[in-house]
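Q: I'm teaching a short session on how sequence maps to structure, and I want students to see two examples side by side rather than one. Could you give me a first protein with its sequence written out and its structure tokens following it? Keep the formatting plain so it prints cleanly on a handout.
A: Of course. Example one:
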Amino acid sequence: MGNHDTFVDLGAAAKVEDTGGAVKQPKKRFVGRRAAAEAAPSDNGNGAIQASEKARRAPRLLSRIPREILDDPDLKEAMTLLPANYNFEVPKTIHRIRSSGARRVALQMPEGLLLFATTLSDILTRFCPAVETLIMGDVTYGACCVDDYTARALGCDLLVHYAHSCLVPVDVTRIKTLYVFVDIAIDTTHLLASLERNFASGKTMAVVGTIQFNATIHGLRPALEAAGFRVVLPQAAPLSKGEILGCTAPRLRQQDDEVVDLILYLGDGRFHLESVMIHNPSVPAYRYDPYSRKLTRETYDHDEMRSLRSDAVRAARSARRWGLILGSLGRQGNPHTMALIEQRLRDRDIPFVNLLLSEIFPRKLALMTDVECWVQVACPRLSIDWGYAFPRPLLTPYEALVALGLREGWDVDGGVYPMDYYAKDGLGRTKPEAVESKDAEPCTRQACCANGTCNKTSVGDGAEPAITDAQQSEQQRLT
């Protein structure tokens, strides 16, 4: 929204009342000092407020990138070394470097784009001669791995992070950060033809994908609707509509008037797709790979996953010593989430040890034999996908709270395992006030308190949940 002229039509002429000849004017709406001055309403003698006849100025789309950068023929020629359908936003990056006065710029990108890293570095240093670039080679799994701390420690004054959305806002990062989504343009003709050939007109499809294909997804919607499909672009705020992460996906609410018939994922690989499949186990999912140009039906063994995770939670309830891992790979680890679990363990007198790790491997955790249960505040998918490979239970923060009786398990929600880690109220966004607040409710028979005094592995095995003194006092007060 720009600062454009605003005119307010106050409606029909004001009613004139017989009050001794005085004309009562209607109360004007507040339209702002500038808009009121420019609108200059006038009274034509009949008591009506006349709106200005001045034509409303058309909105202007301003490009902040100077023309000398956009139209630079040498820059255009240099950019031909990069794939034409990959938008690395080179002019924008050059303008940001020049305008910010940056002298040392860190470039961070996932491994799939590292083959373009040196080309990008050469272009930036050529057109910003006083600038030194630094390519960050550590693994970058996702948007949570933005490594502003390391970039700052290396003396950089600008970080350019490629191929992920701004999961960590730019006003939170420790140095100036520019997110480049790397939009990938594809030919959607084959995709549309494949959908029309395989699905009947009138189907309702939820279209999702990674941030690289988000622009394509939104541009695809009119064409799909013209073909007779009903299109839903679900959102797990604060992510964009249609955007999903490997740990965060929207829950498709199956309302009577809007039943989603299928999920269409645009992208290669299954990692991100599995997130929305786990969160919506009853909706069939399809994947269109823009590189192989194949449309495939995708399945997921929900029963096996839930069984493995239930076994891990059950084993954790009888653990006598816990270990808490804070992921140090970029911004993966949330210290407030860590503190939340620490406080809940202290409330139950459960001993624990803290561990800082950039990457979590079974062999390393096996060295600490006295720890009987691990909770990793890093990537939930590590536990979901690879938890069975660890010698001890490896829980996500959500599973840890379930084991401690502070969250309901997925079995009470129709078997839906939540994938909302970085959603608005997800555990990946835990705030300090959540750590300070008391438990919302005491343990019940549906969840073991896990303080190790009942000698039972779970309530389902006949265990009677032990009640702490504080909980007993609270229950007596309520009754």
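Q: Perfect. Now a second example for contrast.
A: Example two:
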Amino acid sequence: MSGHKMMFSGLKLWTKGRSSHAWINPFHNGRNGRGKASFSTRSPKVCIVGSGPAAFYTAQSLLKARQDVEVDLYERLPVPFGLVRFGVAPDHPEVKGNRSMGVPGEDLAGVYSAKDFVGWYNGLPSCRELSPDLSCETAVILGQGNVALDVARVLLSPIDILKKTDITQPALEALAESRVRRVLVVGRRGPMQVACTIK
């Protein structure tokens, strides 16, 4: 797709200050007045809202069909690729929610679900306001799966390493000030029963 413009922008910027009427009749622009489509010899411009696999497939198909088309992709998340990146399909609702563990103290300040913490450093809009307390030297993670190890890795990785990833700037700044130096990963059983995979 070299030579073609691919733009990632927040939907808030796209919709801010615009009335819903701007979406209803794009042909009614005051010049052709009656809602009739006007055609010109200019290159077509296409806006695709979202940047998941279907958006990229659509953009690729448009660019193959017409080399002069200009395609803009708008995305509300800080990075593209939708479900390919964040991986929770609509038909797996059990993965989306936080499950109560029934552990005394799980609702106390300073206790965060791994789902929310991962969403925070990945820039998910629903987790953007999370402000984890990283002022202590020891963090405890309950669980022995891949997400637990991802959280431990992010908490303990040097900032220079994290800067090379697509972690969000607010998370990077918070982790740069982090005093966490030790992470305990706690599971119900022994090391032979860990639920993580080898990378």
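Q: What should students look for in example two?
A: Point them to this: The first strand starts at residue 45 and ends at 49. Also worth mentioning: The mean pLDDT is 75.
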